[in-house]
Write a structure and sequence with these properties.
With 138 residues, the protein is α/β, with parallel strands linked by helices. It has three helices and eight strands, in the order E-H-E-E-E-H-E-E-E-H-E. It has an eight-stranded mixed sheet. The termini are far apart.
Length: 138
């Protein structure tokens, strides 16, 4: 297996008032946000296909980051999630829950040694671009 992680898929941060934060980022930093945050489109070096990195504000009491107690979670883009999960398993890394499959990609979760939950994402960028609509920024 050559590449395990191909890039950063997103940064998710807990906030007391996600709506207020999204509005602040829109007003002061020019983010085009919706209820999920914003997406930044870029081009992949090896094939010039579009890719996306997501910024999202979660409610401070969100359980999505559990079992981590941290205020943030990182999403890492991967080329072949199933192959990576098999390799990680042989290395003693436990997958949290089951892999989830959506039209815009496959997702799985692991924890790092300091208790940070990591979301692994094998994206389907073409379907993500259609789904993201107006939230995608160029």
């Amino acid at each position: 297996m050559e590449k395990r992680v191909t890039g950063i898929g997103g940064v998710f941060i807990k906030y007391n008032d996600p709506e207020k934060i999204r509005n602040w980022y829109t007003q002061h930093l020019g983010f085009h946000t919706d209820d999920y945050g914003t997406s930044f489109e870029w081009r992949q070096v090896d094939n010039n296909k579009p890719g996306f990195t997501i910024w999202s504000a979660f409610k401070s009491d969100s359980k999505y980051f559990a079992p981590s107690t941290k205020e943030f979670m990182i999403n890492l883009r991967v080329a072949d999630l199933e192959a990576l999960l098999a390799v990680l398993k042989t290395e003693g890394i436990e997958q949290l829950g089951e892999m989830q499959v959506y039209e815009y990609g496959k997702f799985a979760h692991i924890m790092d040694p300091e208790g940070n939950k990591i979301e692994l994402w094998e994206p389907n960028d073409d379907d993500y671009k259609q789904m993201a609509g107006d939230a995608v920024t160029s």
